[in-house]
Each structure stands twice: as structure tokens, then as C-alpha cells.
Specification:
The complex is a heterodimer of chains A (553) and B (285). Chain A has 18 helices and 21 strands. Chain A is α/β, with parallel strands linked by helices and 553 residues long. Chain A folds into 4 domains: 162 residues, 3-Layer(aba) Sandwich (Pyruvate-ferredoxin Oxidoreductase, domain 3); 174 residues, Thiamin diphosphate (ThDP)-binding fold, Pyr/PP domains (Rossmann fold, 3-Layer(aba) Sandwich); 74 residues, no CATH class; 105 residues, Rossmann fold. Chain B has a single domain, classed as Rossmann fold, CATH 3.40.50. In chain B, helix 7 links the parallel strand 5 and strand 6. At the A-B interface, helix 7, helix 8, helix 9, helix 10 and strand 15 of A face strand 2, helix 3, helix 5 and helix 11 of B.
């Protein structure tokens, strides 16, 4: 049965609690059977400016928003003024009457807050209450959502929300025929859960948008999962500290964005040479340099592929939504520890800080995997050659094992060497690992994910957070979607199979040079048209459909 | 080398004849031998080195080690110590490692009171890169990058560490090997961050043997190393630039909780992980 969609925009100033109100609306609409997705847009400042969130609720999983919305919840005048273009004739406006001149439902927020002795930040709860009534949601449905998801100041929030609820006129916007009941997570939270399921023991990170919310999430989870979460002096310390943790046997991940990753590259190269496992969540934002801190980009794919001096194997995976983030973050952890290599989770702001509902029973889990342990036959050789390039691991303290990790060219014992024969042999050892990893990637399920119309001859090529919007556009236009999820080592065989029968490829990327298009062309595959976006904002369904239609005509 | 032969690898030693690192290595090897004799299992000792002449220690000492990057010993050592607080973690770094490339890490290790021992091979010159000035070279030092002399004062590392909150601060000298060994043992046995600036002779590029011979002295027995004001005065006596007497010994010592203690013990975080994740997801539905 087709469920009627609902899109809700809520906007106000930074500090108005727009993100938390948006998340509450996600939970509310999720609780009555919708799948939800939320895009959250905010400038890089603490108070003032314009923040808005667009919640889209639908009958099937969604991972993108629409340009047009059904409801606008305006905490200030700017929200209405800036989003005129998103209105349809039937769009319902719910506004703070004290600050917004508008038709629609005007709520005297200031008076409600004064009468309830509530702080200004609870104005958002008042308007969410009014929205619920206007949408046709029963108070008995809203109340438990507030109780569960607003653990601070719950009673007062309830009072304020009830006042807003009672002040609005009942409407009938919601469609209750949906059957979803899954959890609602941001991309960063999904990656964090994936790391936890992948055996994470320590997380080390210096705050940098849009990775910081993963640091906050894991710091909050540290007690429950026995994690050590450390925020050191800079990103140089971050990646080195992580390798200290790993040397002493703790499965460790780090998180950052482009600028922080620049500082990590020397340490990354050490992980390659010293063969220390480390997982790096790289959440891209608009570059170069400081760029747009709170907006998205897909400009660091080639940077992640080539960062660090010298040649060494690495694993790069770019999940496209929360479900893939849970699955592939586990895989990144496993690959790092099986192959003793750096493994990247290449994310971006739209994924990291976008909110998704998962299907309840579809949170994927894999088993925790690691390198073989030392068999105890002395002497222990940290870099023993094995044929696969993977040396058995011993973690100090092990009686009889002298464990020598080394950033210099070294022999099998980990002792520095300049001997040309040994240096060449140890280079070959690392290359053996790359080949073994490449072969393993070829066998991974959906290293290249294909969706849409599998018989279509027109395909959209995309990666990362553009996957959700590409899937919808492909559905509307009858196209195939090819999403390489593993980007290094590139799953060439799977890509070739994904391309079978395709005669025209339109690549969609949030950069201006077409980095993924460049990779596949380099492997001999055609890309016919490229659609680039480099303003930090995500494609909406409408806009991408227009561009793809144009490109494919 | 005499004693503890099992602590030496068969890697060929490539330090210059007369290098202060021989003395430093011998003192450290003896200190480690004594630690082992007094009950610390050898496998519980981990050496972390930077890059430079000093760092060859990682190849020469037959104990677990991590030969890291220039300036980056301390963050690696911090990760190792947090991962397993039972390990005895010793960092060897040069003055370039600790006072130039990795100064931020040094300051933070002192600030946090991370339970690692930091030994600075302070020869006040870049040896392996063939003779440039370092952060502790005196004003006017003529090196390959400063042929007309440096135009900046040196750091006083002891004063720097006092300002950063270090809980154990000592200075040794490579020509006083017995004292060096006992300072190493004191530092390693100190609960928390221990910092040792070791004046090291670079026989090839900056031989200060005569200068130090005339100026070094041992702190007197009545010196109270718990007195912060006295420690500041003693640290400032010689500023690594102007002629003055050079005190050797433990300048300052105090006990406060360590970083790893404050971070807290490891729990068994793996038990019931799947169920906990499921409960978390149910809460989010």
C-alpha cells in the first residue's frame, strides 16, 4: 500500500534547539509507522544565524529530502522568508506568533513560556506540540515520545508541548498506514554502533565538524561498553595514540575531517610501515582548507587513497546510509585487524549528521575478526613472512616475545635495516597483503551495491551520501544505481558485473573534478556524463531528477 | 658492554666513537636489568623511541619496542600506557624530538601526569642530520642551517616542565653513568610522569665535555625536592645559555593521581555487547 509522504521543515536561530526538535519530530513520525530521514542545516556559529531541519517521512526507507515541504514550523520570521521556495499552495504554517507575521497557525509562544515558567529554549516543544495537533497526531501518541526522548526537563517540556497542542486546530496530515518501527540514528551514531559491534575498545579524536558528534556519542556510550574515549592535544597525537593502543592490543578508531586528517598523514604512513591496525572515520566537509565547516563534500576520496608517503595497503569504505554505516564500520574494524592496515570509513557531513530510520530487524552484524595470534614458537618475529603477508600478532606482555614495531625499513624481527635485499623483501610482504586484501574485497557481499532497475541500460554512478537520492531518482526514471561501497582496493570485478548491459552512465558526485568517475575511467570503464555539486548542500530529489533527466536525454 | 647480555640485540652499533649514547644505553640497560631483577617481568617493559641517533636504542635493546616518528614518542607511549597500565613504558627522545617537533606532546604528558618515563638525549645539536641547531642550542650557535649563528635563545627544559606540571623532573649527564642509572630507576619507579633531561655529549658535532666538566655538580643531600619554589630557583640557575653552575639530580618530585588512574581501569566491554546494542536500538525506536 502506498503511504502518503509528509515533509516538515522546522527553522529558527542557532540556540533555538532546531536539531533536537527535528529529532523529536523524527521519533514522533517514526512512532506512528513512518520511515524517516532528516537533513539538518546549520552555519558555523553558536548563537544566531539560521538553522533548519527538514524531516521527510515515507512508507519506505528514505535517505534524502524533498525541496517542497508540507509543513513549515517557524520559530522566527527568517524561516518563512528564506524558505518561500519550498512552499506548496497547501503547505501548512505553524509559527511563533510573537516573532512571525504569517497566516496559518500562530502560537503565542512567549506567553505560554511565561505562564509555565519555562526557559526560552522550550519554545520548540511548544511548536512541536502545535504541529502534532495540526498533523492529526493524538496527544497520547506525542506524550510517550517526549517522555522517552527528552529525558531532561521532561515534565516542563510536556506542559509546554500540551499548551501548544491545545492551541492548534486539529488536522489530518498524517497517513497511518505505514508499518515501520525501526530505530532512528544519525550516520555518525550508526558508524559508532558499527565500531562497537566490530570490537571497538578505544576511540581517540580531536573535535572537528562533522566528526565531532561521533566523539560525543562514543563518549556517552563509554560507560556502557567499557570504551576509553580520549580527546588529546591535536590530530597528530590522535593517530599516534591510537597506534599505541593498537600495539598494546586494543581495537581503536579515530575520527576527524579533512584538516585534521592532513595532520594525521605522517602517522598514517607509519601505520602502513609498522603494520599497526587503525580505523579512521574521515567525515568530509566542504574544502579546501577550513572551507565550509558545517556543510558537505566528497572531495577527499583521492586524498584518502593517496595520503601518506610511500606505498602501503589500505582499505577504504564509503557507506551511503545508516544501515551501510553500521555494517561497513564493523567490516573496517575487522579488515584493519585482520590485515594490520589502516582502514577508512569515508563519510561526509550529509551522512554523518543526517538522521535515518533503520528497519528494525535489519541492523546487520558480523563476527569480530583478527590476525592469527603468535603460536609461541620462539623467537617471536613481529614481521614474520607468511605468504599472505600477514604476520602473527603478539601483544606485550607475552613471556618470550620481544615485540618490535618499527617505522623504519626493518627486517622480520623489526630491527632497522638498509639491506637492499631485506628492504625489497619486506616491501614485497606489504604488497602481498595488498593483493590478499584486494582478493578479499572481490569476495565481499555488495562491495559494489547495485539497486534500482537491474535491467536498465542507463545507470547512475554514485558513492557515499548521494546513494539515497540517486536511488529515488533512478526509481522515478527507471535507471540502475551503481554504488561502489569499497573504494580501495577497488572491487574491479564486481564493478564490471554491475556494469553488464549498461550503455550510459551518469556520475553524481559532490565535488568539481569527478573523483570516482576518474577512478573508474582509469580502470577502463566509461562514464558518459558527470553531475557535480560543490556548494556544500545536498541534492534534493527534485533537483537531481532534473539534472539526471537532462544528462540522460 | 658488561652485564645483562640478554638485553642487547645483535644489531650492529653505529654510534660515533665517544658518543654519549653509549653511556646512556649502558645506564638504561643496567636500570632495566635491575628492574627485572627486582621483579618486573622483562616482557612488561616497552621502549618507545623517536627518530635520531638516540632512537637506535630501539634496535640495540632486546626488549619490546616501538620505533616511532620524529617527535612522536609520547602519544604512542601514552596509548600503550592507557591500553595496559601494567606495562612499564619508557620513552627515549632527542632534544629535537621532545623540544621541537613534539613539544606539544611533552607539555601535555606533563599536564596529564601520564605514567611514562621520558628520557631526553639532550646533545643540543641535530646529529643524524649532520649538525643543525636545536631548541636547546645556545644563542649564536653556528650550525649548518645557521652559519652566522642562531638568533634565538634556547629553551630551559626544566623550567618548561615545572610550568607544565611535571611531577618528576631530573637532570643527568652522560659522563656520570652511575648517577644516570639511579636517576633512571628513580624516574621509572616514580608513580606518574617522569622527565629526565640528560646532557649528552655529541662527540662529532657539539662536544661540550670541557664546558660541562667545569660546571656540573650534584644536588646536596639536604636539597628538598618537594619544594616547588626551590625547584624553580634551581632550574633557573643555568638557562642553557649563560655560564652558570649546572645542578644534577632530582630537581622536583611530587605525587598526584596519574592520567591512567583518572581514566580508570578497563572493564570487560565485550561481554553482552550485542544485547546492549539491541537495547540501545530499541530505545531509539
Amino acid at each position: 500500500m502506498h503511504v502518503r509522504e509528509l515533509s516538515v521543515l522546522i527553522g529558527g536561530r542557532a540556540g533555538d534547539g532546531i536539531n533536537s526538535a527535528g529529532l523529536l519530530i523524527c521519533q514522533l513520525l517514526g512512532s506512528i509507522g513512518y520511515h524517516v530521514y532528516m537533513y539538518y542545516d546549520y552555519p558555523s556559529l553558536i548563537r544566531g544565524g539560521h538553522n533548519f531541519a527538514i524531516v521527510r517521512a515515507a512508507g519506505e526507507p528514505v535517505a534524502t529530502h524533498r525541496n517542497r515541504v508540507d509543513v513549515i514550523i517557524a520559530l522566527n520570521q527568517e524561516t518563512l522568508d528564506l524558505h518561500q521556495g519550498r512552499r506548496k499552495p497547501e503547505t501548512v504554517v505553524i509559527a511563533n506568533r510573537d516573532l512571525v507575521k504569517s497566516e496559518g497557525t500562530g502560537i503565542p509562544v512567549q506567553a505560554v513560556l511565561a505562564e509555565e515558567h519555562a526557559p526560552p529554549v522550550m519554545g520548540n516543544s511548544c511548536l512541536v506540540g502545535a504541529f502534532a495537533q495540526a498533523a492529526g497526531i493524538r496527544w497520547e501518541e506525542l506524550e510517550p515520545v517526549i517522555r522517552r526522548h527528552l529525558p531532561k526537563g521532561t515534565e516542563l517540556n510536556l506542559k509546554v508541548a500540551k499548551r501548544g497542542y491545545d492551541l492548534a486546530a486539529p488536522g489530518t496530515l498524517v497517513d497511518r498506514s505505514g508499518r515501520a518501527s525501526g530505530p532512528v540514528l544519525t550516520g555518525n551514531e550508526a558508524a559508532g554502533l558499527g565500531l562497537i559491534l566490530g570490537g571497538l575498545e578505544a576511540y581517540v579524536s580531536y573535535p572537528m565538524t562533522p566528526s565531532s558528534s561521533l566523539l560525543h556519542f562514543l563518549a556517552g556510550m563509554a560507560g556502557a561498553f567499557g570504551l576509553k574515549v580520549i580527546h588529546p592535544e591535536n590530530e597528530i597525537a590522535v593517530i599516534l595514540m591510537a597506534q599505541g593502543f593498537a600495539y598494546a592490543g586494543r581495537r581503536t578508531a579515530v575520527g576527524t575531517s579533512g584538516g585534521g586528517f592532513c595532520l594525521m598523514t605522517e602517522g598514517l604512513s607509519m601505520a602502513g610501515m609498522a603494520e599497526i591496525p587503525v580505523v579512521i572515520l574521515l567525515a568530509q566537509r566542504t574544502g579546501p582548507s577550513t572551507g565550509l565547516p558545517t556543510y558537505s563534500g566528497q572531495t577527499d576520496l583521492n586524498f584518502a587513497r593517496f595520503a601518506g608517503q610511500g606505498e602501503f595497503p589500505r582499505f577504504i569504505v564509503a557507506p551511503g546510509d545508516a544501515r551501510q554505516a553500521v555494517l561497513w564500520s564493523q567490516e573496517a574494524m575487522n579488515i584493519a585487524w585482520e590485515y594490520q592496515v589502516p582502514a577508512f570509513i569515508l563519510s561526509d557531513k550529509n551522512l554523518a549528521e543526517g538522521t535515518y530510520s533503520l528497519e528494525a530487524d535489519a541492523v546487520p552484524r558480523t563476527t569480530v575478526r583478527s590476525s592469527p595470534a603468535w603460536d609461541g614458537k620462539e623467537p617471536y618475529r613481529r614481521y614474520a613472512r607468511s605468504g599472505s603477508g600477514i604476520s602473527p600478532l603478539a601483544v606485550p606482555p607475552v613471556p618470550g616475545a620481544v615485540v618490535k614495531a618499527n617505522s623504519y625499513a626493518h627486517d622480520e624481527d623489526g630491527i632497522t635495516t638498509e639491506d637492499p635485499v631485506v628492504v625489497a623483501a619486506m616491501t614485497a610482504k606489504r604488497e602481498e597483503k595488498r593483493l590478499a586484501l584486494s582478493a578479499a574485497v572481490g569476495e565481499m557481499a555488495d562491495a559494489v551495491a547495485v539497486s534500482g532497475d537491474l535491467s536498465a541500460t542507463d545507470a547512475i554512478l554514485c558513492w557515499g551520501s548521494n546513494t539515497g537520492v540517486s536511488r529515488e531518482v533512478a526509481r522515478n526514471l527507471g535507471m540502475r544505481v551503481i554504488q561502489p561501497v569499497v573504494l580501495e582496493p577497488f572491487p574491479t570485478g564486481q564493478y564490471r558485473r554491475a556494469m553488464e548491459g549498461v550503455t550510459r552512465v551518469v556520475a553524481v558526485e559532490d565535488n568539481c573534478s569527478g573523483q570516482l568517475a576518474g577512478i573508474v575511467r582509469g580502470l577502463g570503464f566509461p562514464v558518459d556524463r558527470e553531475i557535480h555539486r560543490a556548494d556544500g548542500r545536498p541534492f534534493t530529489c527534485e533537483r537531481l531528477e532534473e539534472l539526471v533527466r537532462e544528462a540522460a536525454s | 658492554m658488561t652485564g645483562n647480555p640478554e638485553l642487547i640485540t645483535d644489531a650492529r652499533n653505529t654510534w660515533c666513537p665517544g658518543c654519549g649514547n653509549f653511556s646512556l644505553q649502558h645506564a638504561l640497560k643496567s636500570a632495566i636489568g635491575e628492574l627485572i631483577a627486582s621483579g618486573t617481568p622483562k616482557e612488561n617493559i616497552v621502549l618507545v623511541t623517536g627518530i635520531g641517533c638516540h632512537a637506535k636504542m630501539a634496535d640495540y635493546l632486546n626488549i619490546s619496542s616501538f620505533y616511532t616518528l620524529h617527535g612522536r614518542t609520547i602519544p604512542v607511549a601514552t596509548g600503550i600506557k592507557l591500553a595496559n597500565p601494567d606495562l612499564t613504558v619508557i620513552c627515549c627522545g632527542g632534544d629535537g624530538d621532545m623540544y621541537a617537533e613534539g613539544l606539544d606532546h611533552l607539555a601535555f604528558a606533563a599536564k596529564r601526569n601520564t605514567g611514562i618515563t621520558v628520557i631526553v638525549h639532550n646533545n643540543r645539536v641535530y646529529g643524524l642530520t649532520t649538525g643543525q641547531y636545536t631548541p636547546t642550542s645556545p644563542l649564536g650557535y653556528k650550525g649548518k642551517s645557521t652559519p652566522y649563528g642562531t638568533t634565538e635563545y634556547p629553551f630551559n627544559p626544566l623550567e618548561l616542565m615545572l610550568g607544565c606540571g611535571a611531577g618528576f623532573i631530573a637532570r643527568g649527564y652522560t659522563r656520570k653513568q652511575d648517577q644516570l642509572k639511579s636517576l633512571f630507576l628513580d624516574g621509572i619507579r616514580h608513580r606518574g610522569f617522569a622527565f629526565l633531561d640528560v646532557l649528552q655529549i655529541c662527540a662529532t658535532f657539539f662536544n661540550m665535555t670541557e664546558y660541562y666538566r667545569d660546571r656540573v655538580y650534584d644536588l646536596p643531600p639536604e636539597y628538598d625536592d618537594s619544594d616547588f619554589a626551590a625547584a624553580c630557583a634551581r632550574a633557573r640557575e643555568w638557562d642553557y645559555n649563560t655560564d652558570a653552575k649546572i645542578a644534577l639530580g632530582v630537581i622536583f618530585r611530587r605525587n598526584i593521581p596519574t592520567f591512567e588512574e583518572r581514566v580508570g581501569p578497563w572493564a570487560d566491554g565485550m561481554a553482552g555487547r550485542d544485547d546492549k546494542v539491541s537495547r540501545f536500538l530499541a530505545d531509539r525506536a
